[in-house]
Amino acid sequence: MGKDFAAMECSNRSGNATLAAVSDPARRIWLQGGLGVATAALLAPLAGCALPAAGNARIGFTGVPASTADRVTVPPGYEAHVLARWGEPVGLAGAMPAFRDDLSNTAEEQAQQLGMHHDGMAYFALDGQRGLLVINHEYTDEGMLHTGGMAPWTLEKVRKSQAAHGLSVVEVAFDGRQWQLVRPSPFARRITARTPCRLAGPAAGHRLLRTAADPEGRTVLGTLNNCAGSATPWGTYLAGEENFNFYFAGGPRRDADQLRWGMTDEAWFRWNEHDARFDARQHPNEFHRFGWIVEVDPMDPTAAPVKRTALGRGVHEGAWVAATRAGRAVLYSGEDARFEYLYKFVSAGRIAPASPGRTAAQANRTLLDHGTLYVARFDADGTGRWLPLVHGEGPLTAMTGFADQGEVLVKTRQASDLLGATRMDRPEWMAIDAARATVYCTLTNNTARGQAGQPGVDAANPRANNVMGQVIRWTEDGDLDATRFRWDHLLLAGDPANARPEARGNIRGDLFACPDGLMLDARGLLWIQTDASASALNQGELQRLGNNQMLACDPATGEVRRFLTGPVHCEISGATMAPDGRTLFVNIQHPGEPASDRSAPHEVMKYSTWPDGGRPRSATLAIRRIDGGPVGT
Ligand code: FEO
Ligand code: CA
Ligand code: CA
Q: Around ion ligand 3, which residues have CB less than 5 A away?
């Protein structure tokens, strides 16, 4: 997300242990010896990371230099085609309004066009070179969305903002030369912040989810701040609801739970001024109906999106699923906020196959409604534990404020505080290597770490004022559903030229900061996308790192090579491969975003005119080798 929402929230006041309290004595000694000692130890090569002197059999492209230019660069021999821009019609039959460059498209038209600020994405094959792209639209920059920006702020603008949120489903096809949108398409769909979504799982119908408009507590209007996305083994799509807390106005007298969730007095998005359900003083339970993982069946445009409460509530970046050898679904998720947690869910049932007349998506309609949710604790000896978030176990009882499992799930953060989970440096995306029972996770940064009154470093989050971020990985003890694991850092991001030891990192290869998007491809290359905020790019400790970018890392060697650089003030977020590995779809989010004033439309073209030389627009790229060969080789 471009606006540094995580920097606006820092609500974990739990007393959860930092390193000094949980480490084994040997590790504690070197970390207490001071940051210099700690950093030196962390910069030592990781086990199993003997990097060949030159070259790498799996990374086959020529790396590109860091760039501050207002364009997309890809390696020699590659081309990047702009496929799907914010404001293009998604392809609903009979409703294909063209994008108006003066921003005069109405809310109704926006609900028929691709939303703003593309983020997570996944490709679902139809046949041959034809498929569906499901694309998240994370948030809106009102200054870029409306004629006149936020002045005046009207109901019509709130409705347009809501219509620019959510997800798009578009049909795409390769014509032998290039990918194109297929319009109209029977699969084309927009899901917005007003689309009816079903609540399912243990908290569905819970008293905390009932509102005046929905006394049953089972139907929510809309999904929002959809950040990361992923495909499930049964053919559905999962989207996180990330910074939902910034949509609700709590007023000056917020209660302890609202404060723990980072609810603010005024709402950043100001929808509440024209849509009372976002005023938490009037409708306090509406707040509980966001922050879930949402499951969408892309093949059925009539199926309501489902908010899966068994997976817990949080500022969810996204969720990623793989199958155990016994066929259970194991889902990992995290909260991208400073000092928040990492989660895992193990389904009670097994993944069911498709059968005649029933798709796999239909066969697994309740799979994610039953199972066990855990939160992670990373210990300093390189091991870790998954702690069950189960009502009646340990401290999670009525005595501590949890009446039932539904309440544990609505207040997942508060329950995790009581279990002593590890407070992380903003968990973003994950990638699962199921064959090795290994998971990678980006921890994008945490500049509050070690600041006065804030938690200090721990083994998993080892740098104070962590501007750069790191990629952590863990391998489960046995299969993915194990409750213990071993962990290390794949890398600490940074630039060795920096004076401050904590900002140097240990990258072997091309340098970057603020890892965010992740994708593990079929050959085992780990693709890393970055999101340094517009206000931090190309200055200070990020001076030499250029615009946000995408890199390939070979986890076996640790080598990192830069594949793509984005235009000015964008982030790179969202990646998915066509099944033949010959097209990589990548999202460019918020090119040209103003660093500060979100309501100043005159600023909008000051920084970027990507992709068309005019108004900056988030867009999906289709990236191919000119010779048609596999991407990355
Ligand atoms: Fe939406 Fe954490 O990035
Ligand atoms: Ca981010
Ligand atoms: Ca992100």
A: 428, 516
> Is any atom of ligand 1 closer than 6 Å to the C-beta of 551?
no
Note if the bond before 152 is cis, omega within 30 degrees: yes
pLDDT computed for residue 51 by the predictor: 36
Structure tokens that stand for 313 in this block = 């509530």
Contacts of 181 (CB under 8 A, 6+ apart): 83, 84, 88, 91, 170, 171, 172
Cβ(428) – ligand 1 distance below 6 Å: yes
Is beta strand 196-200 parallel, antiparallel or unpaired with respect to 306-308? parallel
Amino acid type, 385: R
Beta bridge partners of 530: 515
Q: Say if ligand 1 is within 6 A of residue 9 CB.
A: no
Distance, CA of 530 to CA of 233 (rounded, Å): 26
- Is-cis flag, bond preceding 184, omega within 30? yes
DSSP code per residue over 41-80? HHHSPPTT----SS--SS--SPPPPP--SSS-B--TTEEE
Task: Compute the distance from residue 1 Cα to the ligand 1 centre, in Å.
Answer: 5
pTM of the entire predicted model:
0.93
Nearest to 131 by CA among 630, 620, 578: 578
Q: In terms of DSSP H, where are the helices of 375-488?
A: 405-410, 412-419
Is the Cβ atom of 242 under 6 angstroms away from ligand 1? Answer: yes
Ligand having the closest approach to the CA of 240: 1
Q: What is the pLDDT of residue 16?
A: 72
Name the stretches of the chain with pLDDT < 50: 18-54
Task: Give residue 316 CA to ligand 1 midpoint distance, Å.
Answer: 8
3-state percent helix, strand, coil for the chain, nearest multiple of 5: 15, 30, 50
